[in-house]
Amino acid sequence: MTDRHVGILRLVAHQAQRELDDHHSIDHIGDTASTGRHEHLERAAARTRGRVADADERRRNRRPALVP
C-alpha cells in the first residue's frame, strides 16, 4: 500500500465522518427513515476507518523489496 493509496483512503474516511457529523447536526427526532440513514452512515464511517487502519498496518509491516 503506497502513501498515496493510504491518503486516498483517509480522504474517504474523513468524508464519511463528515457526512455522519452533518447528519448528527440536523434534528431528526422521530424520523424512522433518518434512523436507517444514521445507521448506514455509522457503518460506513466505521468501515472506512477500519480500512485506513488496515492499510497503515500493511504499510508499516511491508518488507523492503530484495534487490539482486
Name the descriptors.
68 residues, mainly alpha, 2 helices
Q: Domains counted in the coordinates: how many? A: 1
Number of helices: 2
Radius of gyration: 17 Å
Mean pLDDT, all residues: 83
How far apart are the first and last residues' alpha carbons, in Å?
22 Å
Characterization of the model:
The protein is mainly alpha-helical. It has one domain (3-61). The protein is built from two helices and no strands. The longest helix is centred in the last third of the chain and has 30 residues, at 32-61. The radius of gyration is 17 Å and the shape is rod-shaped.
Q: What would a concise description of this structure say?
A:
With 68 residues, this protein is mainly α. It has helices at 3-25, 32-61.
List the helices and strands and how they pair.
Layout: H1 3-25, H2 32-61
